[in-house]
Fold each of these.
Amino acid sequence: MSTANLDPTLNAHSVHAAEHEEEDHRMFGFIVFLLSESVIFLSFFVGYTVYKTNITDWLPSGVEGLEVREPLINTIVLVSSSFVIYFAERFLHKENLWGFRAFWLLTMAMGSFFLYGQAVEWMGLPFGFTDGVFGGTFYLLTGFHGLHVMTGVLLQGIMLGRSFLPNNYAGGEFGVAATSLFWHFVDVIWIILFILIYVWQ
Amino acid sequence: MSNASLDAIAAKSDQPFPGAPNNWRRFFSFSTDHKVIGIQYMVTAFVFFLIGGLLAMVMRGELITPEADLVDRTVYNALFTMHGTIMLFMWTFPMLNGLSNYLVPLMIGARDMAFPRLNAAAFWLVPVFGTLLMASFFVPGGPSQSGWWAYPPVSLQNPTGNLINGQVLWLLAVALSGVSSIMGAVNFVTTIFRMRAPGMGWFRMPAFCWTVLSAQMIQLFGLPSLTAGAVMLLLDLTAGTSFFDPAKGGDPVLYQHFFWFYSHPAVYVIILPIFGTFSEVFPVYARKPLFGYRFVVVSSVIITVLSAMVWVHHMFASGTPSWMRMLFMFSTMLISVPTGVKVFAWVATVWGGKLRLDTPMLFALGGLVCFLFAGITGVMLGAVPFDIHVNNTYFVVGHFHYVIYGATVMGIYAAIYHWFPKMTGHMYYEGLGKLHFALTFIGVNLNFFPMHPLGLMGMPRRVSSYDPEFAYWNVIASLGGFLLGVSTLPFILNIVSSWVLGKRAPANPWNAIGLEWLIPSPPPVENFEEIPIVVSGPYGYGSNESLVSNNPAGELISEHS
């Protein structure tokens, strides 16, 4: 073994490089996971489209259609939050931790608002999960997406907590980047979902 | 030099391989070493193979006479359902995951998988969903009876009225197995993309790794559709929705689409790594480079892409419109082209070679013969008029058992024997291996060939009693089935006794080329003393160029000739 390998600074350097590489793997793996996840949504979307085009008495009796106004507000909030989270990340890159926390918290608030809005909408709807195929697919799609929003907000909470740990934000960057990517993903899914369910009635 | 560094050196020389490779206890522990996880997968899978095989033998026992006299019909339904489910989700998938887990990091020159803890978690889900599946034998009404494909509306029937019934446990187990497989797939894809040793370009990667990559891509992009279908079916069963219930406006054929969009490509998840195994085994025992390496690799990728476009051929008799049947007949037959490329490449590899008929080579050759037969009947089944004629007969059962047992299981055996010395550091007993091959090859053909004439005569599948005119071929098939059961005994004896008593294996007992053969048997934790720098392609048999420019085992590089 050469003495060069035993030089402590060199070791520290290679450890850092290895950590960096590890972080790259994690991001790559996470993107691969999201691609796989999107196929589940795609399957549900395909299912919805097949039902919608094939079933003649699609809406449950007594239901005219879905109210679009409130979901639209919800959509605007969720889509905007994608920009807010982008700025939060920018602050982190500039090492402005308080800026990061403020915008990150705002994203969490917007995500929570979306969940609240969806809960209010669900409670006011005249049909349930078991009211025909329409009821089933509606709650399956919005519910499955809602679970993802909830997961996103939860992850954001964890990242926010970690930002208060001393010296953490070398190790926390992957978490922040992945959470942010997840949030954009959830957002894009919602846009497709909104068009499919609320616009194409 | 700091004290810490000196301590590190001292610790290293005291314990050359932390968690010594031959300590058997670590195979029962939570380990993140890909080699331990690989063997854990393989052993677990083999236990389920034996259980699934026993169920099959009860079925063959029932079918030895035309009357339903051994088990009653509900039990028979449960038998073929659980046999199919276990053999796919509990045997072939985990077995091939285990094999890939063990081999891929070694073959690409990595110290481990990209996410070792995720890897372990994916494995430990296997006993969990295996237990869940087995628990269905003990709930009221017994296990699922709707076949391994769980088509509604049959699978929506719940005669016991219990919330926890065999079908629900089945669906939960399948969904969990999906979670485990996706975790595994993310890991494999990341590992192969990101962790290849320096110098190992895409076209210097062994064909086996290419086939694993292809298979795992199918898992990533096909499996979610099965998961979606399983979730919806579960909701129909337990929450009162009506996605697939025709009585309430649902669409049972949509389930078939969800199911086959994954479950047809799933056969490539199984067979592709076997293609990879053939591509590794033939060059070694024929002492020749793999013929048309690039074509073999590219054909795997083409099969992966085409595999997503053929699922409707399982639904030719499900009211599928004619134009769609034509389209899928065409795409199905198209798959035989890249597959044929591979077969010709193997034949050309073996052609004129100096063959060494050791057990791995025998199993690979036997597997190839069975695969050829399965391929021919596969093209026949791809033709709509023929498929409609033999739909739901034993012809189909015979075809896929030639794929699954004839090619896949024999391919798995080839892989196990070939890499056994590497995995355990011991040589297996050649005589027992050859006996195992002879029994298996005869058993496969006795068991599964008669199913073809039976199918052509019109014997339906999934029945426990049949017209006496089918008795002749059924008796032969049953005897073949029992022979297959017997054939596992010399295998178990061989593996157990040679692992304990077998003579020590050198690093490279076959004089093969590949990174895994440059390090000691069994490989140390973290595999490589020094990460290899790859300087040539994977199959340089007969050439004098060396595979790597440094020495990954910290010893002299052995010369290949």
Note: The helical segments of chain A are 8-54, 69-93, 97-124, 132-163, 173-199.
Amino acid sequence: MSEERKRQATSVVEPTIFELGVPGHPGHALPALDVPRLEPEDVLPDGFVRPAPPALPEVSEPEVVRHFTRLAELNHHVDRAIYPLGSCTMKYNPKINEEMASLPGFTGLHPGFDDADCQGAIALMVELARHLSEISGLAAVSLQPPAGASGELAGMLMAKAWHTDQGNPRSKVVVPDSAHGTNPASLTLAGYEAVETSSGDDGRIDVDAFRKVVDDETAAVMITNPSTLGIFETRIADIIEIAHERGALVYLDGANLNACMGLVRPGDVGFDIMHFNLHKTFSAPHGGGGPGSGPVGVRSGLEPYLPSPLPSYDPGRPEGRRYFMDRDRPRSIGAVHGYHGNFLVMVKAYAYILANGGVGLRKVSEDAVLNANYLKAKLEGLYDASHEGHCQHEFVLSAERQKEQGARALDIAKRLLDHGIHAPTVYFPLIVPEALMIEPTESESRRSLDAFVEAMISIAGEIEEDPEALAGAPERTPVGRLDESRAARELDVVWEDE
Amino acid sequence: MPYLPHTDADRAEMLREIGVSSFEDLLESIPTDLRMTGELDIPGPFSEEEIGRHLGKLAAGNRGANCLLSFAGGGIYDHHVPAVVRTITSMPQFYTAYTPYQAEVSQGTLQSIYEFQTMIARLTGLDVANASLYDGASATAEAALMGLDVTRGARVLVPATVSPHVKRVLRTYLASSAADLREVPTRDGRIDVAALSGEISENDVVIVQHPNALGLLESVNDVGELAERAGALLVASVDPLSLAVLRPPADYGAAIAVGEGQCLGSAPSYGGPLLGFLAAERRHIRRMPGRIIGATVDHDGRRGYVMTLQTREQHIRRARATSNICTNQGLVALAAAVYMSLLGRNGFRETAVHVMSKAHYAADAITQHTGLSLAFPGPFFREFVVEMPRPASVIRSELSRDGICPGVDCGTYDPALERCLLVSVTERHTREDVDTLASALGAAAAEGGSA
């Protein structure tokens, strides 16, 4: 422990907001009450009135601003530097999108207004859905799911509704062992049993093994393509054919669409259902955990099952009412969100798609693939790549070599933070030991990629010299390595006043 | 293409360094017959100027947002959002950050969400809260599943007075479970406690929305007692602002409280992004869905924050996770934390008192001067139902011409309520606004009488 660190021990970087206030501090002023004032006791029955208001902090406006500004300074963010989280796609967030999503004409809209009063918003949704259809090659898209995992649930429920209409709901869904954890969680929520299929030596789905697990009880197969190893399932056509022959639907986890736009369309390949992550592929910022948005697309024949209501256009309606939310959808799986999903995220994605156009979106995917291969080529001499050959938009390294030398993937991740760089995703996919999953995205310059490479080279060298040194990493961050097992063991999830 | 930093020279050199002669070589694993031929049929690229003009037109095409004097509520409310909330949530350090997977460089997000959890716990009177869910509707569905997991029961009792927006999502989530979703009868717009008493049994999950979809306060004390006596688990769906003046769910025996947090510092935004919150008794924390932030120490003993109890979550537990939720509503939770910090204990109560006073003034103004009456006799907090002589949808269309949205059409909730309007007031309405509504409704009612 450094001397400075010792001095700071048991201190806090920023006190909680509950420690900052003083009773009576005003942080906000209301308009003068221009009607007779009523106290809760005047209108609420006995036994309903709260004896004392909830103990929220009492802090003045300048103090609130400073508190949250100081907190902001403790965050890494993509406007500052590369954020190469594999499977998470953290690309630059264009500022015009924010401006568009804060137009009062959008933010002020109440979801209970008549469609006639929301024509612009519904038109935007109809156009966005059309663009997503074009990008995916699928017939129809519902924008309602508020996140990718919600889109997965909607997709599984649609598969179930479709099979039920065919006379047999079936009971199982097949997922590769490399899949995102949301896939098995979503299919379970939809009432299915998860059946795992293994990857072959080349990192791709083992087609022979796959053939054996798909049977007449298989309702669907959930595939991520490019896979979470960042490689294209070369035999995807065979996989889809095998599934279809047994009557199963094929679902695409669209998390990796950033690699595909204008290059390959899921619908053309034969996928039946997919979800999009607007916050990944279409640059809506992630907000430190969300909001996201997870539209679902389907091939023709499955449209009746899409979540309801569905933004729609009918030129036969009177002017000013041509865009409408179609609520008359008897075969729909129902709603997965209270209203229309994360509308403002849709605005951002729509602005992004228009800024790029069809030509630009293809270029986006090309550069995403180029950047990932550039990093892979520069790093695979020092770290073990999960598989040979070129990758798509992301790739996985294994720190097995470094582990033998005495430093784990986690140590490497923490040391990267000292270089001012966010760490890649670690320990995922589960099938790669000591995995470091790297996705630079297309918005990183060569200079930024080279800086990442430099840091990774420096860390590999440091491990060769003194792997123990990494146990102290990170050393140049606001706090040192945090004790996660203590957090789970001695649960402290709400602040208790002294 | 302003978002792409490379020049063509960069690209060529990078390809050389990779060791390929053309970009196409990087696509070798995509069979050629699967590749897209031709271009995506999407217009653009467009400049900022052009995008601004086009989206500006679409935004202006929403008459609802710009021109209507609106009394629409029903779960989504147009409160004043203090400038500070937007200032903080517009900081790229917050909005361009990802999920805090590397805690040491994510303390800002983590601590602010820990503070959010604390505030939700204090509002609801419960011990612990999670780091947000998508919206109030999916939060209620998650709470029902969590409740079933706790009780090992197989029935969810839902009164007809739970918001239809919530019920739709609840139905979707429960469709695939073995659980039986059973409707609890209501009387005069509130839960029929006697009927519930006959229905409720051990291990049921009972949902109560308080105030309910019609703005009325439910007999939560009786419902809580019934649930406790029967050995059922109570889930309360609550309006967070109401908790400034109403007894918290923990007081009437709710083991789980959920709700929609949009009114805490977010604009209506056509219904999204919203903010689902979920709080529970400490003993149920391991069954809670979604992310939870916990405090710990770093290796020098300094206080810091991490995502905790992750072994419940899908990325570790996969098919056995408590829920499939992954991406949540972090930024909206931050907005809520900033909002509640600014208002503070007294400001929050004052806002609730202000809204409650105006809502009651509005109800009086409408009933005393127009001959109209409230559809239900029960006590209310911030919104109430007016019974019109003609369908609410027709009244809405007529008033829309004068630039007024008089409220939510309850006919969209239940055809039997087609003449009912749910009127909602916030601190943004002036007395004059309310008087304008009252006379417009009065005129509409009179017109209907003579027709």
Note: The two ends of chain A are 29 Å apart (CA to CA).
